[in-house]
Each structure stands twice: as C-alpha cells, then as structure tokens.
Amino acid sequence: MSAAGAPRRFTRRGVLAATSAAGVAAVAGAVGGDAAASVLRGERAEEVGGRRIPFDGAHQAGVLAPTAAHGWFAAFDLAPGVTARQLEALLRTWTRDARLLTAGEPVPGDDAMALGHGPSSLTITVGFGASLLRKLTMAVPAELAAIPPFPRDQLDPGRGDGDIGVLLTADDAVVVAHALRALSRTARGTAAVRWQMSGFNAVDGVTVAKGATPRNLMGQLDGTGNPKVGEPGFDTHIFATDPGWMRGGSYLVFRRIRMLLDAWDTLSRERQEQIVGRRKDTGAPLSGGTEFTPFDLGKQIPGGGLAIGPGAHVRQAAPASNGGATILRKGFSYFDGLRPDGAPDAGLLFLAFQRDPRDGFTRIQQRLALADELSRFIVHETSALFAVPPGTSSHGYLGQSLLEAL
C-alpha cells in the first residue's frame, strides 16, 4: 500500500528503480557514495522518461530545446498531384499527433511500440524546402536560396533537400523511432520519406552532468560557443522576420559531416587541440580559462606565436572572424559501421538555426572551407535547407501561416 493507503501500481521501471534503491543501501556502506550515486541512475532515468516539452508555443519546440540523447531527421517529398488542401490535411493530422506524442499519449492507430516509455522530452519540428514552395507556386524567399557548393564537398543528391523536413529529438530512441513511424504512416498517399538519418548524444543528467556540453566522436566538446537565449541580439540572429509567414520562425541548415577519424587518431593530443583551438579534456580555449571563458584571439604564447593559431577552428568559426555571423547549432553523432575501405562511416549530423543562412551558415562555411585546419579531417556529404515556420497556438496547426499566405 502507498502512504495514502491506495494500492501501489508496480511497473517494470518501478521495480527496477526499487531494486536499485535497495542495492544502494547495500553497496553504499561497502564502496562509498560515488558507487551509490551510480546505482541511483536508474531512478534518474525514470525522471528523464517523464520529462515533457510543450508542443505549442511562439517557436517550434525543437529550435530552443536542450540537447537530446537521440536525434532523427527525415525529409519527405509530396506525392505527384498533391494539392494545397491535401497538404493542409496532412499538417493538421501531424499537429494533432505531435501534440499527443510529445505528451506521451498514443495516437490513432498506435502500434503500442512506445507504450510505457513516456514523452522523454520529445520534440517534433517541421520545415519546408524551396521545392515545396515551388510546387505551391509560391515565391521562394531569398533566405531559402540553395546553399552554394564549398571546396571538399562530396554531396549525395539522393540524401539531401526535400519538400518537408522533420526533426525529431528525445532522450529515448524508441520514442523517436515510434514518432517518425507514426508520422510516416499518416503521410501515406500524400508524402513519402525521401531520406532519413539518426544520431545520438549522451543522456543529459544521467550519463553526463545535467547541462553538460556534448562531446563528439573526435573527443571534443561540441557546441560550447552557442549563443544563449536572452543574450543581447539572440532573437535578431536566430529568428526570421521575412517573409510574413516566417516571422518568428528560423531557417534550418542540415549537414551530414563525416569525420576522417583514422587520420585524426594519428595526431597527437596536442596537435588535435591546436587544430580545434580548445583543450580536449575541459573544452577551455587555448588562450586560457575554463570552457566558457571568451577567446582571447590576440594572446601570445611564451616565445612568440598565437595561443589560438591562425587556422584553428574556433578562430575561423568565431563571429568576430565572420562579420558577426551567429548560428544556433545542434549536433548528433552518428556511426553507421565501416565503409568499403574499412574506415569508419561516422561523424556529425550538424543542424544550424539562423535568421538568414546567407549571413549565417554560408558566410561561416565559406571561411571554414578555405582556412580552417579542421576541414582536412571532415567531409560534408549531405546538405539540406528548410524554412521552419513559427510555432503553433493550441488551436493552430503546423505551417498554418504558410498555407494562409497562398
């Protein structure tokens, strides 16, 4: 019986949590508090599964959501002959289902794949490609112009762009897979998946400290320099104002970036840190301080030379080196086995939100492709650009501002 006298409902998670708690009492006395804290992670995982991020809001939730353990991106193409009214019906259905899924509730026709998993901070974010606007005979905003090619790009056109882009993030891979399957099922006859990719991070607050910066497959902390909500100029850099149907939305660049890990691993740790411009263990800039200490790009080292070298990634990517260009980046590692040559097919699924890609991602990447030493150890293989419209009211639907502008 519970403390209130009502029968207690046991679940598999509850039993595991109770077992872990009992184990702590036995283990703590023998091996101390650190081991006890490790055992208690089972209970913290229960808390993670119950976390919910509201679907409705001024901006789509995936733009500002904290780092998630799992990220899936899928691009859809409309079936031939689909009308604006049919597209609206699909977006209304997706909105209904997204509200349910992000609340941890089943959707119509649910297969119970994620039964009992909870929302796990699920977000579902939808954007529109230039090809969709052309199919709707709408003007394509200048911000949605094709990203230009860059040196060393090896883009696969079969795994890029698309009419509709859908970003799904959560702290549970089953929850993400279930959500994508649900959206794909309801889209049948109207839209089909053109390509999809999935990636992973550590579980925030469980396998790493809460709010910790993710670490990529090169071993570096990845995303330290992101702008913070509430900082001066944040909204100006990240949220769009034009055209009217995009006001409060953001433009999303997606890139699949393969890391040449075998070549990277031949470098000494010191050389790797010089190429990135940060310490590998703490993420602190080589100019000194801690992870979040601002760069001192002019600092000299004893004997002469810059602490952060001319070709260091952080120098070349910094807003100060790119006319103030600022993006809100998110990243997920991926590891898809081995390539035919035996090298790892692994790297980063890179996402960047910004007000205008021409003044954000494109400006930065043009510099990186030519002057960044890190560019010799990565290959861009997928590129896509989507206009992510503003969020929804409780009675609205995804893309409503776009379709009402027709």
Automatic annotation (TrEMBL):
SUPFAM superfamilies documented for this protein: Dimeric alpha+beta barrel (SSF54909)
Signal sequence residues: none
Upper classification of the organism: Bacteria, Bacillati, Actinomycetota, Actinomycetes, Streptosporangiales
Keyword presence, Oxidoreductase: yes
Coiled-coil ranges (or none): none
Top-level division of the source organism's lineage: Bacteria
Domain called Dyp-type peroxidase C-terminal: residue spans: 213-392
UniProt keyword list: Heme, Iron, Metal-binding, Oxidoreductase, Peroxidase, Signal
Protein name, UniProt field: Dyp-type peroxidase
Family: Belongs to the DyP-type peroxidase family.
